[in-house]
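Section 3.1 - Work completed
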Amino acid sequence: MTRRELRENIFKLLFILEFHNEDEYFDQEALYFEELGPVEEKDELYIKNKLSMILEKIPEIDEKLEENSQGWSLSRMGSAEKNILRLAYYELKFDEDIPDKVAINEAIELAKEFGQEDGASFVNGVLAKLV
């Protein structure tokens, strides 16, 4: 998988897991990979590991997003935009392998594809305040 495909799958899992409790996590993850089809072991491990690291940091990530999304609480954000921002913030602050410009650009592209009509602008605005 390309980096973009890996990132998209991580975003999709973050999105799915938002609608399930912790007890359903492993079942939902397994179901996702089953429906995804054949995935190289290294790619599956990358997705699972990065997802786990993001989930561990969700309280810290959400706090920073709340502080920097003026006038928008997390509960008011669209689920797609919120999880795109979570992924992007993680990449900006905790993933040294990904340049900031790449993390921001990829987040904007995800928002264009999966977010609401003005989702890309919103994501760009919040991320601009974070860097």
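Second construct:
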Amino acid sequence: MKRLNIGIIGGGTVGSSALSLLWKRKALFEHMGFDLHLSPVLVRDPNKTREFEYPNVTFSDDPAVLEQADIVLALMGGTTKVLEFMLGQLKAGKPIITANKAVLAERWDALKPYSENGQLYFESSVMAGTPVIGPLCGTLRSSDTLELHAILSGTCNYILTRMEAGASYDDALIEAQDLGYAEDPPTLDVGGFDAAHKLCVLARMTVDPDFAFAKLEVKGIEGLSSERVQTAVKNGKRVKLVGSIVPNGSEWQAKVRPVILDADHPLAQAASSRNTLLFNGDACGTVIVQGGGAGGMVTASAVIGDLIDHLAGVSGHKPRPEVTKVPVGFYAEVFEEI
């Protein structure tokens, strides 16, 4: 078997889950002909207590531990330190698998060249373990985008679902944090910024390889009351935080905001922490993908899936090669915004 040295950046929820899943799938990698070996995991605090199943793992805050890695899983949050670590490995010619949608959205200028040459894998950065990046970079690329709508925050979807059941916003948020869906503080989640990061990644896969994060319009769910959410349900509607990429005059517009949907709308069917993506292309028509969109193990499943793809010879995820022409005479779906 070929020895495969894996470096990991980050030992939080996703990093710990990735370690556990790597151990569970060890036999699969052996069947593929690879003997896994872990470098010490690069973390901010090596002394922090973590729970995972991979035996004899060590932790370090020294970036030098990545030098012997053949491939690196970048699972640390933030946009500064993790970018520094990623660029060091990318410049050395190593492939990177990342779940960090913020660094992809906000530091794309530095990462785009490595995405274009196939070094970057980031299926787990959008909708966790539900595959959307791969299809948008592959099968669906034969279609020009007409519109895209998506529920991208499993955290917000969970909170809104609990509010429908009568929970207050504050209680639903605490539940989401206890389950590991929401961060502490939760501003990125409930403010809509986490969904905006993901929508920006999707925009670069579907309409514009250089779509700027600053162009996104963002509104979260902090100001919503349980009464507002429950009134919508009584009227045969549902409140959801939806991200949309739609034609707007001669350019593409991307925005995240709470909207009111008919209860039978495909996006309204996403319950609890699940996510949904609706893609409408000129050749393929409407495609709907739904699945788990929050949680460490769900996200780790896409991380390890990208690793399996890489070992099978599949290239990393590449942005759309050019700006998609804004469709003439097409009217995107319009939702009632709150």
